[in-house]
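Summary for the steering committee. One of the milestones for this cycle was to obtain a three-dimensional model of the protein with tryptophan bound, which we needed before selecting residues for the alanine scan. The sequence and ligand used are listed below.
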Amino acid sequence: MAEKQEVVLSGIRPTGRLHYGNYFGAIKQFVELQEQDQLCYYFIADYHALTTAKERVDYFRYTLDMLRTYVACGLDPKKSVIYRQSDLPCTAELNLLLSMISNIGHLERGTTYKDAIAKLPGGNTDGPDGNPISYGLMGYPILMAADILIVQADKVPVGDDQRQHVEMASDMARKFNHRFNCEALKIPQGVSRNALRLPGLDGGTKMGKSENNDLGLLDDPKLVLKKVKTIPTSTDPGPIQGDSDAPADIIPQLAPGLAVIYTLLDLLAPEDVYLDFVGKYRRGEKFYGMLKNTLAEHINDFNAPIIDGFHAEGNNDESVKQFLMENAEKVTPVALDTVENCREAMGIGRSLYRA
Ligand code: TRP
């Protein structure tokens, strides 16, 4: 019998339109991973989206658009198992079971919770209704642990900001197995995603939709040019002294706006084009107009096949719903098995109702 394939799992919150930060920070690695000999599970964390929702948001619409973009970027629903978190509702059951072994003090040290507290006016948690942070948000790491543990994942590739959550999941699995003297949960391992954190078009440290500084994978040429033109170049510190032919990495020395431009050019343009512009910068030539036009062209070349793929026949709402359904069906037996084993281990016994 063939050895059991290693299970790699990662979740993505449904944010709607995807941008270059998402591509170079995650999608690219997902596509590379699916070509290796591992079983890749990627899911849309729609329950997680609800932890910060202030009103109704059409997350399902976001999910469909995101997945069509993923497919256009090369993620193959035949190779990777792509599903929606809420189509595996037994995740919520495992979340509940795990909540019974989770200390509140421990959750208070979670980054998501701490960040939410930091954003409160004056860090104030004693308003008229007490702490305004929802129970759901505080439980973010438990739900994430449920996602990971329910499919018995071996490896979880995440960005640095999510490392702590994966460690909390491993701790929970160990604690559960130890406390109930069982091996119901596999201990997952966090792995670095070797991903790039792209700066925003405004020169901000992180590109993000909520920061409103993103370059979209589906942006058309007109919008691309408009966005590229607005990248600030006026804070330019001036030419760098030294050997003008040295192809050294100049990006860390640039003002934030220019650093974004050179970072993108380095990712998208052929090396000689990039190096040519490095030389121009070093010599202190006037070339920002040309630089921006060149960058816009390369962005358009990058986006064109993704835009085509997004609108391609066979990549539509119906086809996405179809693979979501098939994959939910595929993952459910493993997930139910985990939940049933946990119920048994905790002593309430297996479900009598669920076949
Ligand atoms: N919290 C992750 C993020 O914001 C998304 C996520 C939810 C996730 N569940 C997961 C990632 C399980 C990896 C494994 O990016």
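Key point for the committee: The pocket of tryptophan is lined by residues 9-11, 13, 45, 48, 144, 147-148, 156, 158, 162 (CB under 6 Å).
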